[in-house]
Amino acid sequence: MADPKGFMTTPREEWPRRPVEERVRDWNEVYVPGALLPIISRQANRCMDCGIPFCHEACPLGNLIPEWNDLVSREDWRAASDRLHATNNFPEFTGRLCPAPCEAGCVLAINQPAVTIKNVEVAIADRAWQEGFAPPRPPDRLSGRTVAVVGSGPAGLAAAQQLTRAGHTVAVYERADQVGGLLRYGIPAFKMEKRHLNRRLEQMRAEGTKFRTSTVVGRDIGAAELRARYDAVVLATGATAWRELDVPGRELAGIHQAMEYLPLADRVCEGDLEVSPLSAAGKHVVIVGGGDTGADCLGTAVREAAASVTQLDIYPLPEAERDEDTEPWPTYPKIYRLSAAHEEARELRTAPAAVADARLFAASTLRFTGDPDGHVQALQLVEVDERRRPLPGTERTLPADLVLLALGFSGPDRGDGLIDQLGIALDPRGTIVRDDEFATNVPGVYAAGDAARGQSLIVWAIAEGRAAAAAVDRRLSEGASHLPAPIGPYDKPMRA
Ligand SMILES: Cc1cc2nc3c(=O)[nH]c(=O)nc-3n(C[C@H](O)[C@H](O)[C@H](O)COP(=O)(O)OP(=O)(O)OC[C@H]3O[C@@H](n4cnc5c(N)ncnc54)[C@H](O)[C@@H]3O)c2cc1C
Ligand code: SF4
Predict the structure, then answer these.
(1) Residue 217 forms beta bridges with which residues?
(2) Which residues, 6+ apart, have CB-to-CB distance to 107 below 8 Å?
(3) Whose CA is nearest to atom 3 of ligand 2?
(4) Which ligand 1 atom is at minimum distance from the Cα of 448?
(5) Is the pLDDT assigned to residue 491 strictly greater than 80?
(6) Per residue in 290-342, pLDDT tens?
(7) Alpha carbon distance 406, 16 (integer Å)
(8) What ligand 2 atom has the least distance to the C-alpha of 98?
(9) Best of 54, 83, 97, 117 to mutate for ligand 2, by most ligand atoms within 8 A of CB?
(10) Which of 31, 50, 193, 291 qualifies as a FRET site for 428, CA 20 to 30 Å off?
């Protein structure tokens, strides 16, 4: 570190967000452009180089955090970029989207605000692009072996990039019209603008990865053909089978799944559609589900100028501070967090009937009621205790013209027939069973990301894609692989 007393003299400062009034009028990222680089070297210098970096272990990619903190504090951006890209294919994604379990494990966080690790990561990644430190890295020679990757989310992309760089000929199959998985359709542009994804895809194309979009594997190309054509197959199809809400009135019009709603808003941003057919404009919106997907619906509905937006969370209001008895440092604690979308809702008072940030905690949906035309009109809820038992006398009704269900995902979608055609074994949760080498029960077929892990995070998807690529490369090169693999355990609980 450039100044060993940095952690005592410099307070934590994060990348500032743009004013709410300004940012809800567009779809660009919520941060002030250009405001991170001037502060980041001093922030990196807050790293104590503690000797036993729990942050490094807490990061599923095993990012070399103290090393690049030191290099950034000395303004050696090229070396910092090399160290960062050594463990992470897409740091501009994680630097924007990761919930940063590393920061919960930062040793400084025992009694002070953690180092802004995620901000340092994104600063290195963006600077690397600016300065040309991340050129395409095509392989020196081809192995003559072929790999099909099914699914182009972060797991599929990481696997494809690693395998292409190892010299294999890789084709990525994607059923959507564009590459990116949830990074393309799902995660709103105000969290990560699509230009970051497009830039990486250009790099991957220049390295030799081929993309086949609008191709449903299992329908447009059969599983048998895929296996016959390629030496190995990596399934990175995500966990897109959504959970349902089985309450009276669910059949009414105007009640949609979050993942029916969010991709349409993305298409408006991309210029594919002028207006979303499910736009929240002028509507009373209720989001059922208190997680990140629900928060993304909230930020989207606010930008579409909803009349009101309320988000229901069945869990009680979390504590402000970690409970040292049940969730001691360095675990990732369940505490009250205010996302950018919640900050917007709080400032704009989108839900007068809810707590200030638009969320109603400990709220369980009882039923929906509709108008004579069969369109939803209201949602009835009841407060529940920690065991989800209704509290008598707490029923209330919220107006609702648009209801968005954000209740999570159970596993890979089986509608396209791929899993059944291949004869892939699933566990009781519905996710793909694979061994320590990422191999499924079908020889030559591997699985990575949400499809095998269950609904999770970008950082885990990249880590799994890298690890699966290393396993495939070991087999194709008969044990002579040089691809690094993040060290598991990959059977950890799904959330950070
Ligand atoms: C709305 C939303 C917001 C999120 N926000 C965050 C966040 O801020 N931070 C974070 O860390 N995580 C976030 N997540 C979770 C994160 O996006 C996922 O964990 C991650 O994208 C999983 O990556 P994946 O590659 O396994 O699958 P996915 O990204 O789901 O990609 C799978 C791809 O496979 C394709 N596919 C499926 N079947 C076939 C087939 N038969 N043929 C061809 N293609 C097929 C799908 O079309 C899809 O493009 C969010 C999730 C959602 C739903
Ligand atoms: S990927 Fe996530 S956990 Fe790893 S260093 Fe970046 S922010 Fe931290």
Answers:
(1) 221
(2) 48, 50, 52, 53, 54, 55
(3) 59
(4) 26
(5) no
(6) 999 999 999 999 999 999 999 999 999 999 999 999 999 999 999 999 999 99
(7) 28
(8) 2
(9) 117
(10) 291
Stretch 360-385: mean pLDDT, rounded?
97
CA angle, corner 299, sides to 296 and 301, nearest 5?
Answer: 105
Cβ distance 169 to 138 under 8 Å?
no
Cα separation of 91 and 465, whole Å?
14
Ligand nearest to the CA of 457: 1
pLDDT digits (tens, 9 = 90+) for 217-276: 999 999 999 999 999 999 999 999 999 999 999 999 999 999 999 999 999 999 999 999
Q: Which token pair is 6?
A: 């940095």
- Is residue 455 a contact partner of residue 148, using CB atoms and an 8 Å limit? no
Which token pair is 363?
Answer: 């709220």
Report d(CA 143, CA 166) in Å as an integer: 8
The reported pTM is 0.97
Ligand 1, pocket residues at CB < 6 Å: 97-98, 150-156, 173-176, 181-182, 186-187, 191, 216-218, 236-238, 240, 262, 292-293, 296, 413, 416, 418, 449-451, 456-459, 461
| pLDDT over threshold 60, residue 196 | yes
What distance in angstroms lies between residue 313's CA and the mean position of ligand 2's atoms? 26
Q: Residue 155, Cβ neighbours under 10 Å: how many?
A: 35
> Could you tell me the distance, in angstroms and rounded to a whole number, from the CA of residue 232 to the centre of ligand 2?
30
Top mutation candidate among 187, 296, 404 for ligand 1, by most atoms within 8 Å of CB: 187
Report the distance separating Cα 408 and Cα 291, nearest Å. 8
Nearest-CA residue for atom 2 of ligand 2 = 100
| Among 96, 410, 458, 490, residue to substitute to test ligand 1 (most atoms within 8 Å of Cβ) | 458
Q: How far is the CA of 303 from the centre of ligand 1 (A)?
A: 23
pLDDT of residue 354: 66
